[in-house]
Amino acid sequence: MDFNVFELHKLIMNCLNEDIGTGDLTTNSIVPGNAVSTGYITVKENGVLAGMPVAAEVFRCLDPALQFQARAFDGDFVERGKVLAEISGNARAILTGERLALNFLQRMSGIATKTAQFVKLIAGEKPHIIDTRKTTPGLRMLEKYAVRVGGGHNHRFGLYDAVLIKDNHIIIAGGITKAVEAVRRASPHTAKIEVEVESLAQLQEALDAKVDIIMLDNMAPEMMREAVALVAGRALVEASGGITEENIRAVAAAGVDLISIGALTHSVKSLDISLDLVEINAGGGNG
Q: Which of 167, 190, 206, 221 has the maximum number of C-beta atoms within 10 A of its C-beta?
């Protein structure tokens, strides 16, 4: 995993508390406390796998003695019917953690799969596919990780690690130049400054202000080519807005450096993954 394991543990514990509350009424009523079982996580459609370490940590938080044996790993292309993991140990812990572990796996694998599809569509072209801040509140760390698993790259993580001056900032500041000047007075020298532009006139103003990155907002590929020629390597160029599977190749061919796609995280379809118990030893009582 290349994200903060302490933050991951805290996130999982909060999610478990949300789901379990004072106890799993169904499982604790039916399954003896000392019952043991074996279950298999299986994918039911083709896709790119992401979130296996997260799923394993869910079960580990519920019972450190549970055995989680991965049979596939993040970044693998998995086909329908593939067994992803075998879990064995306390049956209550497996059943109680099932939904949360699958929710993470399904969501993250859906993001990785969609990202991989976009990356494949522009194979051999210059731009990187990047995400946005249009993520599920509280899950940004995991969703941005899933983008990387799918072959994409990350935009800024939050409002604190890079500057992005958008249309509303420009209106309030009274123009791009004034907005950039205000940011430079208040921000550390290490912070990158990106400006969103909607026209070639705004683009020229951003270049005159010597910003680091210019976002071309909802421009047609023809105008993007003009914009890239005008920039002439003086800043990174990002294409954003209205990017689809149908037009992404034309956008890439315009010569931009980055293509940001909110749909990687804000409206992706989860991959279909299930967990099934195949055997259970009910033990000697209700414990």
A: 206
**Beta pairing, strands 36-43 & 83-90:** antiparallel
Question: What is the C-alpha to C-alpha distance for residues 13 and 58, in angstroms, rounded to an integer?
Answer: 8
Buried b (16+ CB within 10 A) or exposed e, 39-55: bbbbbeeebbbbbbbbb
Q: Pick left, alpha or beta for residue 174 (phi over 0 → left; psi -120 to 50 → alpha; otherwise beta).
A: left
Could you tell me the domains of the chain? 5-112+269-281 (3.90.1170.20), 119-266 (3.20.20.70)
59-118 pLDDT per residue, tens: 999 999 999 999 999 999 999 999 999 999 999 999 999 999 999 999 999 999 999 999
Active-site annotation, residues: 99, 134, 166, 196, 217
Say if strands 193-197 and 163-165 run parallel, antiparallel, or are unpaired.
Answer: parallel
